[in-house]
Amino acid sequence: MNYVIIIDADICSGCQMCEVACSLRNMGECNPERSRIRVVKSQQDGQLEFVPSTCMQCETAMCELVCPANAISRDPETGARIISEKKCLGCSSCSYACPFGACFVDRRLGKSVVCMQCDGDPTCVKVCPSGALTYSRADQVNITLKRGAAHRVMLAREMMREEPQTSIPPVEAGDNC
Amino acid sequence: MGAILYFIETTLLWIVAVVLMTGLAWRLTIFVVAIRRKRQFTRQGSWQRLVSLTGILAPFHRAILAKPAYAALRYTFHACLFIIPIWFSGHIYLWEESRFEWYWSPLPDIWVDWMTLAVLGACAYLLVRRIVRAKRLKTRPSDIILIVTAALPFLSGYLLTHGQLSDIPFFDSYLWYLHVFSAEIMLLMIVLLFCRTHLSKERCVGCAACVENCPTETLEFNDRGPDRLFKYSHFQCICCGNCVTVCPEQAAGLRHDLHPKHLFRIVSKTEIRRVEMKICKGCGVRFAPMPQIDKLYRKAQSGKIEIDTLDFCRRCKNLRVGLQNQNQAK
User: Fold this and answer.
1) What residues in B contact A44, CB-CB < 8 Å?
2) CATH number of A1-54+121-160
3) Which of A12, A82, B41, B229 could serve as a FRET partner for A176 with CA atoms 20 to 30 Å apart?
């Protein structure tokens, strides 16, 4: 059974916890540059948006097709794309061919790296505080997204029922916040 | 004349020995320091490192399998270059007579004779090949000088042991000095003759796989400016052939490179290749070598795959896809 990490960019708060946790688990250091999941900041019409992106586990993967060393294969258990460290040459063909910009060559390792879903227990999903990342089966992606949307609609309704706040509590003296 | 000959036989020999020892020690130090710095090799266990180093000594890779006969010739030639001077009975006799009084058991003379003939034959073949195919192999005068210098000590040594030219007075008096002098040059070349990585201009796409797999940081690249520059430092190269093995385009090659100005490049680097970088359509950043993207386009066309994101850098691709998903959701 194939699993994917589902990204809901609407509720991403841009805290970049996933980047830190990913690089800490897989690279052994807190360095968002070496993380396998990226949160990209974009500014459109004055509106700030955060877009997390990671490997989408394509059915026909470009990275697999262009690799000159046949280093990319599927994990038999989770169906995630894994790059064999022994075979990989570090030529970064996969990173240019990937339509999502998911895999990249880590210059410290000299090898290409891609999200391998932490062997079936993704760290980024565990640490995400806003719930923008979900780990689910590939054939249930639609229903998971719909469930998330329904949940958000329910939350909005509850907020509408509550009475709007009329007065802002005064800031106490000496409080820097 | 006599003074010069005496100088060749005594003082020069000592100078050569000192240069050889310090040079080898210097290169070994650089090798150990560089290999420790490289993350890729320190992550391995010690026995794994040993396996990969023996792999360097016996590289049965694509570049060799393409021309097995020529590779066998080169292997025997280089093995003989080391075996003959060390295990020849005459040399061991000289060591025994000297103040060190070292002795080790020599090879039978008839073996050494045949090996010397093999070396001379290989030299003749390489010389003819260099001259006949001068245009295709891009022969420079230094290549021919190199082969002749390699053949000289073996030729003179063979003639000395067999005494065929001792009737001619010139050779009778000077052949010995020719042998010693040419052998001294050979010893110097062990330290000073560098191999150099060549990246062929027609094939290399600038992917930097050779740089990533170089164990001693001999090859480097930087992307500053409009081009990607590949740099090579002569003194760090240990001629392991990793760059030749990994190159996905078979564009890398190791060649002897005899040039006087390289002797003074102990720390400096040579530029060996320059590749233009492609500009991202989205943000205008130079992100990938142009020939590699062209190659991926060709590969995609031949395999009938549709890739429409080859012109974008990683960040733009991340962003584009995320925004597309959002728009679809809305």
Assistant:
1) 323
2) 3.30.70.20
3) A12
Chains A–B, number of C-beta pairs less than 8 Å apart? 105
Nearest-angstrom CA–CA distance, B259 and B53: 28
Treating both helix axes as pointing N-terminal to C-terminal, what angle do B141-162 and B68-87 enclose, rounded to 10 degrees? Answer: 50
The answer to whether the Cβ–Cβ distance between A110 and B212 falls below 8 Å is: yes
Name the pTM for this structure.
0.76
**Residue B31, helix vs strand vs coil:** helix
Secondary element (H or E) of residue B61: none
Residue at token pair 């027609």 = B202
Task: Please state the φ and ψ torsions of residue B322, each to the nearest 5 degrees.
Answer: -60, -45
Backbone angles phi, psi at A40, to 5 degrees: -100, 135
Indicate the residue of B213, B310, B315 with minimum beta-carbon distance to A89: B213
The whole-angstrom separation of Cα B65 and Cα B76 is 16
What angle separates helix B169-192 from helix B141-162, to the nearest 10 degrees?
130
Task: Please report, to the nearest 10 degrees, the dihedral formed by the alpha carbons of residues B217, B218, B224, B226 taken in order.
Answer: -140
Residues 6+ apart with CB under 8 A from B68: none
- Coarse DSSP helix, strand, coil percentages of chain B, rounded to the nearest 5 percent: 60, 10, 25
| B242 vs A: CB within 8 A | no
The distance of B296 to chain A (nearest Cα, Å) reads: 7
Residues A99, B317: C-beta atoms closer than 8 Å: yes
Domain A56-114 has CATH 3.40.50.300: no
Q: How far apart are CA B253 and CA B138, in angstroms?
A: 14
Q: Does A2 touch chain B (CB under 8 A)?
A: no
Q: How far, CA to CA in Å, does B158 sit from each of B153, B167, B170, B172, B273?
A: 8, 16, 17, 14, 43
Residue ranges of domains in chain A: 1-54+121-160, 56-114
- Bridge partners for A40 per DSSP: A51
For residue B207, which residues of chain A lie inside 8 Å, CB to CB?
Answer: 91-93
ipTM confidence: 0.77
**What digits encode the pLDDT tens for the residues A52-101?**
888 888 888 888 888 988 899 988 888 888 998 888 888 899 999 888 88
**With contact defined as beta carbons under 8 Å apart, do B195 and B255 qualify?**
yes
